[in-house]
Every structure is written in structure tokens, then in C-alpha cells.
Specification:
Blueprint (H helix, E strand, L loop, with lengths): L3 H8 L1 H12 L11 H17 L3 E6 L6 E6 L7 E7 L19 E3 L2 E3 L7 H18 L5 E7 L7 H8 L9 E4 L11 E6 L1 E10 L5 E2 H4 L6 H9 L23 H8 L5 H9 L12 H6 L3 E6 L12 E2 L2 E10 L5 H15 L5 E10 L2 E2 L5 H14 L4 E5 L4 H10 L3 E3 L15 E3 H19 L1
Parallel strand pairs: 3-6, 3-7, 7-17, 8-16
Antiparallel strand pairs: 1-2, 2-6, 4-5, 5-18, 8-15, 9-13, 9-14, 10-12, 11-13
Helix pairs in contact: 1-4, 1-14, 2-4, 4-14, 5-13, 12-14
Bound molecules: ligand BES and manganese (II) ion (2 copies).
């Protein structure tokens, strides 16, 4: 079933792609202070585009960090209001030498567009913007009321938007949210994501001597904070992948038997996943749980980096005064960031080896979420996806986190429709991030048909 808006989208596809490329050229890396101006520039480009396509009340909303972009169009009397959400910030591109084309020079190769942010999340924000443009251009109006809120701090915890949502700002008054920041379960398979893990991101600092010391003069008497740190880290999980923090698992709400049965019927080949996505000799993790359960419905601990000490070329014989590890935990429904952090902190303080001081810092956190599916918006989404992709929609969870989705539910009572168009091998946060061009096109058609369906 085609519509004038879908026809408009098809006719304008080459220009849509050019405009996505322009957005991808802006290195809006939210975590690096030297890219603050680029983040603002990306926000300004999006705001200008929202004005150009006919959205109203377009403005940047200042936060303590990178600005939010707001726009609305509220003339569909009697129709529901959607809050369209996405993020314009991206992860750092390193390691740079593994990219086949430079991360901020978008390049088309074998049906994909390669660039940092291609799929996470600029390509998908663009899907939403182009769907709105197509509807407005083809019909002179939108089939429902629309508010757009884009953030530039998703990859660093989303503090600014969290405060804005917690304030229940009138700009956020809506009936449901449309979040395009997830992926299809498999190529060509229409997918709605109905659950996300939460997280706590921490720094664990271990301090030994007052200052760096000569390791020959003091080795054997002075504590080595890297060894102490390694001893602590080694006690976070046992060999079977169980987290050793007492009480950590206590509040978990397991998936229902129906949900587990649905996951078992998804087209998932563990060996293919191991080889093509993970690329390791073997998969690891808690015994007794499938890979999908382990990544979607079980908590985990990961270490991201251990800055400090001597890491230059050659050798330096030093006992560093301190060592730091960046450690995060993914949380699942039932768990809260506050309690999980408290349990982790007291465990680490208790097991710290003699002679060192420990400091555990919380950098950011986000709640896990589980979306109710018995609402008309999920129904409309299922129908629209079926039409565009020609297959039954599957409902999945994801192991990733989008902290604001939980906040939308808690503070605003909004259910989210997580309709995203990434693919499992799109290399999010990794070198050679890409977005499949077919998914860019069909994503736009899916969002158009979804909004038409809700407004019907
Ligand atoms: N879009 C991702 C989350 C995601 C990835 C959802 C894959 C579904 C499938 C998001 O941009 C992201 O990376 N989130 C961070 C959040 C964190 C920094 C609070 C994450 O999951 O690490
Ligand atoms: Mn994202
Ligand atoms: Mn991301």
C-alpha cells in the first residue's frame, strides 16, 4: 500500500542520502571536550532542517551539556501526539587505523554507507526527519501531532535530557514515543525492540604509595595498585561467568515462559553469531542460559579500560601511585542502578587487598526497561512494518541501553515504540560503522506508514 508520502520519499532518496552525509561529516563526539562546538553544530543543522520541512517552534534547549533540539507540529486536532526521539551525538572513532575509509568522510560501499554515527544514531534520526518531511511535503499536514526531541549526550549517559524529562516539561506532553535507535534481529526481518538493559558506569581507583616509586628500590615493600586492581577485578566474576557481588541477582524479574518460547523460535545460529559477530574462539557466560538470555535478560560486568601507569614504548621501572579501571554493569528488569551500585561498592571495599585505598565513583547510570506491547501504537507499528517488509514482525529485547526510554515511562507515562533499522553487523561503537542503504530507505517508508496508521 503506497501513499503520496511514500512516493515523495522514493523520489527524493538521492537528496536524502546527501543530507545524511552532510550530517555524518560533523564529528559530534559527545564525550570529547574538544568536539563541543561540533555537537552544537550538529544540533543547529538538525534544527535548520526541521524548520525547512515545516516543523514549528523549532529551537535548541540548553542543558548543562550539549543542547537538545526541539520542534513540534500540533495541528491534528483529536489525533494522538507522538514524541519522536533520537540522538545526534556519536562515540569516538578510535582505533582510527582500522577504518577502511575515514570515520567522518561518509563513503558508500557495497550497499552501505560507512561513517561514525551512520546507524547510531544519525542515520536513524535522518530516517525520522525524512519521514516527517515526506508527510508534510506530500500532504501539507501531518496525520497526527508530532513533537521532536533530539539529544546530544546519549552516549555519555544523557544527563541533560534526563533532567528535562524529570521536570515534566510541557514540550514533552505526548501519548507515546517513537525511538529509532535499535536494530532488526536479522536482515529483512521487521523488528520491534521491547526491552533494554540498564547500566551503571563506574570508575574504580586504587591508590598505593604517595607518589610513583622506583620499582627496584621499593618493589617488595610498596603496594602495587595495578596488582591490587587486578585482584579486585578478578573477583567480580567467577570462571562460570557468575557475578560474585552478594545480592546482585536478588531482584531480577525473569522473562515469562511465553517470551522465552518466542526467543527460541527466532532465527538465531549461535555458531554464525560467534564467527561473524564476535569473532572469538568460544563464547563465554553463565551456564544454563542461552546467548539471547545472557545478553538480553541477565546482568553482566565489563571492564572497558585501565588508564594509568607507564604505557609508552620501551620500559620504565616504576611502581605507579595509582591505577584506575573503568567498569560497567548492565542491569535487567527488577534491578535498580542505586541498589546495584551500593552492592558493588561495598563488595569492592570489602575485598580490597591490604595496603591500598579504594575509591568507587559512579559516572552515569540508566534504568532497564520493558515495554508493554498491548497498546494501539505497538499494533500500528506491527501492521506498518508488515506492509513495508512483507514479513511478520518479531519482538525482541536488546542488551544495549537507552536510558531515556525508562525515564519516558516513569516520569511521563509514555510507552515507547522502539522501531530501529540497524543490522547486527553494523559495527556500532566500533571501526567501520555502517548503515545498510536499503534499511535507510525502508526505514523511512516504515516510519511514514506507522505515523499514517496511528493517525488513521
Ligand atoms: N543505540 C545504542 C543502544 C542500543 C544498541 C540499543 C544496540 C539496541 C541495540 C545507544 O546509542 C548506546 O550505545 N547506548 C549506550 C548507553 C550508555 C552510554 C548509557 C550503551 O548501551 O552503551
Ligand atoms: Mn544509539
Ligand atoms: Mn551508541
Amino acid at each position: 500500500m503506497s501513499s503520496p508520502a511514500v512516493a515523495y520519499a522514493r523520489q527524493n532518496q538521492p537528496r536524502f542520502l546527501d543530507e545524511l552525509k552532510a550530517l555524518l561529516r560533523i564529528p559530534s563526539i559527545s564525550t570529547l571536550p574538544e568536539h563541543k562546538g561540533d555537537c552544537r553544530h550538529a544540533a543547529e543543522v538538525l534544527a535548520a532542517d526541521l524548520s525547512r520541512i515545516g516543523m514549528q517552534n523549532v529551537r535548541l534547549i540548553e542543558t548543562g551539556g550539549h543542547p537538545l533540539v526541539y520542534a513540534d507540529w500540533l495541528h491534528a486536532t483529536g489525533k494522538p501526539t507522538v514524541l519522536v526521539y533520537g540522538h545526534y551525538d556519536v562515540q569516538p572513532p578510535d582505533p582510527l587505523d582500522e577504518w577502511l575509509s575515514p570515520p567522518f568522510e561518509p563513503t558508500e560501499r557495497d550497499g552501505n554507507i560507512y561513517a561514525r554515527g551512520a546507524v547510531d544514531d544519525k542515520g536513524q534520526v535522518c530516517v525520522q526527519m525524512k519521514a516527517l518531511e515526506s508527510l508534510l511535503a506530500a500532504n501539507g499536514s501531518l496525520p497526527l501531532n508530532v513533537r521532536v526531541i533530539l539529544e546530544g549526550e546519549e552516549e555519555v549517559g544523557g544527563e541533560g535530557i534526563a533532567a528535562f524529562v524529570a521536570s515534566k516539561a510541557p514540550e514533552l506532553k505526548a501519548d507515546f514515543a517513537l525511538v529509532s535507535d535499535t536494530e532488526l534481529f536479522a536482515p529483512g526481518l521487521p523488528t520491534l525492540c521491547v526491552g533494554l538493559r540498564g547500566m551503571i558506569y563506574t570508575e574504580l581507583e586504587v591508590r598505593g604509595a604517595r607518589t610513583d616509586l622506583h620499582s627496584g628500590m621499593y618493589g617488595g615493600a610498596a603496594p602495587n595498585p595495578f596488582i591490587a586492581l587486578a585482584q579486585i577485578l578478578a573477583r567480580l566474576k567467577d570462571e562460570e561467568g557468575h557475578i560474585l557481588i552478594p545480592g546482585f541477582y536478588d531482584d531480577i524479574i525473569p522473562p515469562s515462559p511465553e517470551e522465552l518460547a518466542a526467543w527460541r523460535s527466532l532465527p538465531f545460529d549461535e555458531e554464525h553469531y560467534r564467527i561473524t559477530e564476535v569473532g572469538s574462539r568460544q563464547l563465554v557466560g553463565e551456564g544454563g542460559f542461552s546467548v539471547l538470555e545472557r545478553t538480553w535478560a541477565r546482568p553482566t560486568v565489563d571492564v572497558h579500560g585501565i588508564p594509568g601507569g607507564f604505557t609508552g614504548a620501551g620500559a620504565k621501572t616504576v611502581i605507579p601511585a595509582k591505577a584506575v579501571a573503568k567498569v560497567s554493569m548492565r542491569l535487567v528488569p527488577g534491578m535498580t542502578p542505586a541498589k546495584s551500585f551500593a552492592l558493588y561498592k561495598s563488595y569492592v571495599e570489602r575485598i580490597a587487598p591490604a595496603g591500598v585505598d579504594i575509591e568507587v565513583r559512579l559516572i552515569h547510570s540508566g534504568d532497564p526497561c520493558l515495554i508493554p506491547v498491548d497498546n494501539p501504537y505497538i499494533q500500528a507499528a506491527t501492521l506498518a512494518l508488515h506492509e513495508v517488509w512483507g514479513k511478520e514482525t518479531v519482538f525482541i529485547r536488546s542488551g544495549g541501553s537507552i536510558p531515556i526510554v525508562g525515564d519516558f515511562a516513569r516520569h511521563l507515562g509514555l510507552p515507547s515504540v522502539m522501531m530501529g533499522f540497524g543490522l547486527p553487523d553494523d559495527n556500532l561503537h566500533a571501526p567501520n560503522e555502517k548503515f545498510h542503504l536499503k534499511n535507510f530507505e525502508l526505514g523511512i517508508e516504515s516510519v511514514i506508514r506507522f505515523l499514517e496508521e496511528v493517525g488513521r
